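User: what does the whole thing look like in 3D?
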Amino acid sequence: MTLTELQQKLREKIRVAARDTFGVELQQVNAETPPRAELGDLAFPVSFELAKLIKQATGEKQNPRSIAEKLKTQLEHVEEVSRVEIAGAGYINVFYDRAKLLGIFAGTVTQDKEQLDRPKKMVEHTSINPNKAAHIGHVRNSVLGDTFVRVLKAAGDRVEVQNYIDNTGVQVADVVVGFLHLEKKNLDEIKAVDATLTKDYPFDYYCWDLYTKVGLFYRDGSPGGDVNPEKVKLRNEVLHALEEGGNTIAELADYVATRNVECILDTMERLGIRYDLLARESDILHLHFWERAFELMKKTGVIRYEPEGRHAGCWVMPFESHTGTEEHESDKIIVRSNGTVTYTGKDIAYQLWKLGKLGLDFHYRVFRNYDDGHVLWATQTETVASGTERPHFGGGVTVYNVIDSRQSYPQEIVARGVAAVVPEIGEDASVHFSYEMVALSPAACEELGIELSDEDRARPYIEMSGRKGLGVKADDLINQLEAGALTEVEKRNPELSDNDKKATAHEVAVAALRYFLLKFTRNTVIAFDFKEALSFEGETGPYCQYAAVRTNSIFRKLADETVAASDTLISQIAGDSALRERVSEVLSGEGGTEIWSLVMLSQQLDEVIVQCRNSAEPANLAKYTFSLARAFSRFYHDHRILTEQDEVRRGVLIAVTKIIRTQLTTALGILGINVPEQM
RNA sequence: GCACCCGUAGCUCAGUUGGAUAGAGUACCUGACUACGAAUCAGGGGGUCGCAUGUUCGAAUCAUGCCGGGUGCACCA
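Assistant: Here's the predicted 3D structure for the full assembly of 679 residues, as structure tokens:
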């Protein structure tokens, strides 16, 4: 039995008791964890609500305390419950049988959830324009998305992870303009340059710098200046060539985009982030997904042609919006008067495909094989030989799009548009997994050597901008973190080989970065701060990791037979009342309650995972993991496990450590953080 | 102008579907290492939860109105 199941059982008892004793039907019974362990393990504030309901039903006035007294007796008979107290104005506080539950928890083996029969969920994240290196803002997207994927899998869901590649958009076109018109290079010359680039300055860094030069080029060299229309024409020519396909410019662009994708995938791989499919914009275009979506939208009457008015010649989607009390209609243009489709239109087509409602499919090829056998696929336009084995892509029941909050308006329109075309799936099938941006504090800008205007200096934070080259590149930050971690590892573990030191420093760096990006809730703007991001102390990934590493080192130093003796002892709790009594003593009193609280906290992991899935808020799990690590650090400091002489007490301490090791390692794994041998 | 988000300790942030005395980290001050690893632990000071009214047994949390900050509202792509 898990803690969640026990709580469920008690809730049900309360519900039945309320019905039988007072004739009141409760919709749901809320339970909460008391603020202090001395108050109990589980609290029901149900009496207040009941007092109200009873009065409504019978007119009889009962005070919450006396109601609580009557319900109390129903819970006392439950075998896992040792006693029940009424506290405050009418809280029903339940105290568990600690010894009995310790035996149960210690014996519970966490098993992998069965994923096969669940409907598939789709998560799209990363989706960086493939024209430059990833910066820290992009990494927030990827880490949030990847962690959410891990949460869903931990909760037993089937998940498909997609990374959308906009290889025909303006941003790629801009870099292509840079290569063609600033550097005057053809494809072979670009390849030649690429071949000379090193790991310290890879292709995506090269493009990063080129992209900012193009931004200046459009403005004739002055950052705040107006764009020169003659030069923008060059971009439009490239864009046109990309849409057409089958020409030298498109070929050049494909090389540039693909190389950037490879670089970005390498960056993400450093952080343990992977995908199942790269969905490419060019294939959506060439396989005519939009045309199909257009037919569907016309057929279902989702869009209408405007013969006159300010949108004359356009196909629009009527879009109702509520502004205060009045309601008015505004139209969203899907097809322009010149016949071209807007981004919203393309997004609706792609979203329909993700939900399996478009009636068209891509062709596929293998993009990358990972060491451990994982295969990354990419879409393609060209047909493949029949009989090629591959997974089935698309057709999810729920689609999560990890996109920053600035896109919330367009995302809402896409969700509505899709729901209008396919009413049976509804708007809830499309979820905008929204998050706020990572911005730079004015101080961080100065550290980067960026000059700020007085106006910018007065702002709370400054938005990162790929176009301006303003941002902290992901690889730079990871490098800095690894260097910092390596110094610490060398200090503490001089006996390790260089490879082991580097590998450990890498794990620490990943922990630091991932936790830093996960500790903030999604709708908090992160004002990036170097000192905080590079820290390994306090509420950080390495802190949590360190606690888990110590659980391991305890077991490394414990003799096998000592651990075996503990296991045997704990397994006998259920059937040996004298032993149960001794274990209860260890778990009682101030010190014992401290230990017990740690055990209770550790058993809430399942609940936190479910809550995290439902709220789509990975920060919940990050905060929980930290509090578990903190509680264990205190336990570790307060109790000597290796030298404990009392057999029962030692058994309990070992069992608790074992439970924490499992739970903490699992929680960290879902956050994408590994636990090294030492650190 | 309209929509969405934010306002909680000096700073950066948590705060379950409304619940018991509002919590962490950091900074500052003090103490604990010939170690089951100090990337740690313990203690201290620090709060009109932006303001006001309302809803109720109970509000940081819900409602309304203000104040302050951010973002988004194109036939751009």
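In plain terms: Residues 647-670 of chain A form the longest helix (24 residues). Confidence is low (pLDDT under 50) at residues 322-328 of chain A.
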